[in-house]
Design brief:
hydrolase, Sortase, Chain: A, eight-stranded mixed beta barrel, 244 residues, 34% helix, 8 strands, alpha+beta, 7 helices, Sortase
């Protein structure tokens, strides 16, 4: 009787192990599709109130660093976008401090912009690369993950964005329209490209196909319009949830 009980327990443990291995195998097989789906389900509606609240909190952070956690601009802490990071970021997505939205209609990019380059922010949004940057003034650099899926995060930037296209940014008050004038591959250590400039430009940065270099796309500011008066198609896009 005792022997039969041991055999039953042994079979149960063996079955559990095989089941667990099967689940792990399925996750590994469908890792990328599941990861992309999790990213795509992040569809917050960015509002002016949320942007202003995040900006005020960031200002308070600078004055009271010992009391509040500020947005991270430490590029060295950015990790590759693996399955675990995506799931964790989706669970903690409320930590993302909204700064606005980016829209590149011809490339199919419509993403929230979050303050900083924390792993949570970059897993689900484009991230600002300096704490002092302002849309429409000087250089406004944004970082985003390159994805093999040409529809996720800054994947379209690599696969579809070309010179001459329009890039739209909004802080949910005004719309800043830029025209792409440069598409170039640069070394990963070219941090100078995020420096402030006199000319109002947008700088979009993502990894190249190897992950060792970077793709940089720049656009010049051509027009600033109040959101309520901007082109109807652009306005409708910005008033919808992102990733839609």
């Amino acid at each position: 009787m005792l022997s039969m009980k041991k055999q039953f327990i042994k079979k149960g443990v063996t079955g559990f192990i095989f089941g667990l291995l099967a689940i792990i195998a399925l996750i590994m097989i469908f890792n990328k599709p599941i990861k992309n789906k999790v990213v795509a389900t992040y569809q917050p509606k960015v509002t002016r109130q949320a942007v202003v609240a995040a900006s005020k909190k960031e200002t308070a952070n600078k004055k009271h660093r010992q009391r509040f956690k500020t947005a991270s601009y430490n590029f060295k802490k950015v990790k590759p976008l693996d399955f675990g990071t995506v799931v964790s970021s989706r669970i903690h997505s409320r930590q993302i401090a909204p700064a606005g939205q980016i829209l590149v209609p011809q490339s199919g990019i419509h993403l929230p912009i979050g303050l900083g380059v924390s792993n949570t922010t970059l897993a689900l949004a484009a991230g600002t690369m300096r704490p002092d940057q302002q849309m429409g003034r000087g250089n406004y650099p944004l970082a985003g993950h390159h994805m093999t899926d040409p529809k996720i995060l800054f994947g379209p930037l690599y696969f579809k964005t070309r010179i001459g296209q329009s890039v739209y940014l909004t802080d949910m008050k005004s719309v800043y329209q830029y025209q792409v004038y440069q598409r170039v591959f640069i070394a990963a250590d070219r941090v100078d490209v995020i420096n402030q400039t006199k000319q109002p430009i947008v700088t979009l940065i993502t990894c190249d196909a190897t992950g060792k270099g970077r793709l940089m796309i720049r656009g010049r500011l051509v027009k600033t319009t109040p959101l309520k008066r901007t082109d109807s198609k652009i306005k409708r896009a910005f008033l919808r949830p992102v990733n839609s």
